[in-house]
Design a protein that fits this description.
By secondary structure, this protein is of the alpha/beta class. It has ten helices and 15 strands. Bound molecules: NADP nicotinamide-adenine-dinucleotide phosphate (NAP). NADP nicotinamide-adenine-dinucleotide phosphate (NAP) binds next to helix 1, helix 2 and helix 3.
Length: about 325
């Protein structure tokens, strides 16, 4: 069969995505074919579309990008035991191919959608929420009383990190680019929003922590902020450099940058490593679904575009002007 999809024949700017027919073969062994009800949009999609180096390999055109979706199982391939036709399912990791009305996907990375959770909310939250889960519980296990620094605190990831870190008992310092975003971050639980062009976030962290520095920085900006983020950490603090929206940061020198600043830790965590084992995937998703169900997390789903308008969605995200999450509706 075939489906309508955003097909890319050469990597580049948003308008390389073309709304076209795309083949969907019968599901192979271990795969299911699912029909999407909602598709998550992530900043990493723009890297895949543009061929920007990223922890995941640059895709080979022709390709359909996207790696987060919610839908209904239409057909199961040989050897699939845990999913049946008609099941409500979700996924938030590659293989790519979610910017399509229907697709095949490996059952080994698929999740059952719990009753009562909204398809669009899960599409908005699954990948970013699982990322926040592992960042806050495993990359560094946030403790009550910790001060944490969250960059781009009003972005899709930032709003989730603020809400969840606050619920864990942390004091949250968050950086943003505008006063409007500062208010959005504050509403999400950021105790000290900082407009980066107006105030030095390192000074704010030092003030809030009586000079000690923060326990962890969730660093998604990269080139523009990473060195200053290291200045904001307490001795033995952790820099979780999970993104680089302003471009890849300069190389870090382990002696001058980490040792002399106070035996700092730095890591470049990526979701595919943290949920590579099925048990980790299920545990991470369960924790996220509980956080959504108990009201700890609001999706901040502020942008819904028809799937055929994915070009506009990408242009908006790359402008840096979006506030909260974006989904595509087939
Ligand atoms: N490692 C992982 O497992 C993992 C998982 C999920 C996401 N990520 C990464 O996390 C980062 C954020 O993702 P997201 O979904 O939260 O993105 P998003 O919703 O688009 O937010 C990104 C924010 O970054 C800020 N920003 C600063 N400089 C920017 C620039 N030059 N261009 C665009 N935005 C800029 C903007 O906030 P201000 O205007 O307030 O500065 C913007 O709202 C991305 O790098 C993504 O790849 C990593």
């Amino acid at each position: 069969m075939s489906t309508m999809a955003q097909v890319i024949h050469r990597l580049g700017p948003p308008d390389v995505m073309e709304w076209r027919e795309w083949p969907v073969p019968d599901p192979g062994p271990g795969e299911v074919r699912l029909r999407h009800t909602a598709i998550g949009v992530n900043f990493a999609d723009t890297y895949h579309r543009g061929g920007v180096p990223h922890p995941w390999p640059v895709p080979e055109p022709p390709v359909v990008i996207g790696f987060e979706g919610v839908g209904i199982v239409e057909e199961v391939g040989d050897g699939v035991r845990d999913f049946l036709t008609g099941d409500r399912v979700a996924y938030g990791i590659p293989p790519l191919g979610s910017y399509a009305e229907a697709r095949n996907y490996p059952a080994s990375s698929l999740l059952h959608l719990p009753e009562g959770l909204d398809d669009r909310v899960v599409a908005a939250l699954l990948m970013k929420g699982m990322t926040a889960q592992y960042l806050l519980h495993r990359t560094y296990a946030v403790q009550p009383g910790d001060t944490v620094l969250v960059h781009a605190a009003a972005g899709g990831m930032g709003l989730i990190l603020c809400q969840w870190a606050r619920a864990l008992g942390a004091t949250v310092v968050g950086t943003v680019s505008t006063a409007e975003k500062a208010e959005a971050a504050r509403a999400a639980g950021c105790d000290h929003p900082v407009v980066r062009s107006e105030r030095d976030f390192v000074s704010v962290v030092r003030d809030v922590t009586d000079g000690e520095g923060c326990a962890v920085v969730y660093e998604a900006i990269g080139r523009d902020t990473l060195q200053r983020s290291l200045d904001a950490l307490r001795p033995m603090g952790v820099c979780a450099a999970y993104g680089h929206v302003s471009g890849p940061p300069d190389p870090v020198d382990i002696i001058t940058d980490l040792g002399r600043r106070g035996s700092l830790f730095i890591t470049r965590p990526a979701i595919m490593h943290y949920v590579a084992r099925r048990e980790d995937l299920e545990r991470t998703a369960r924790s996220l679904f509980e956080a959504i169900g108990s009201g700890i997390l609001d999706a901040n789903l502020n942008y819904e575009y028809p799937l055929r308008d994915a070009v506009r969605a990408h242009a908006a995200i790359e402008s840096g002007a979006t506030l909260g999450a974006t989904v595509l509706i087939p």
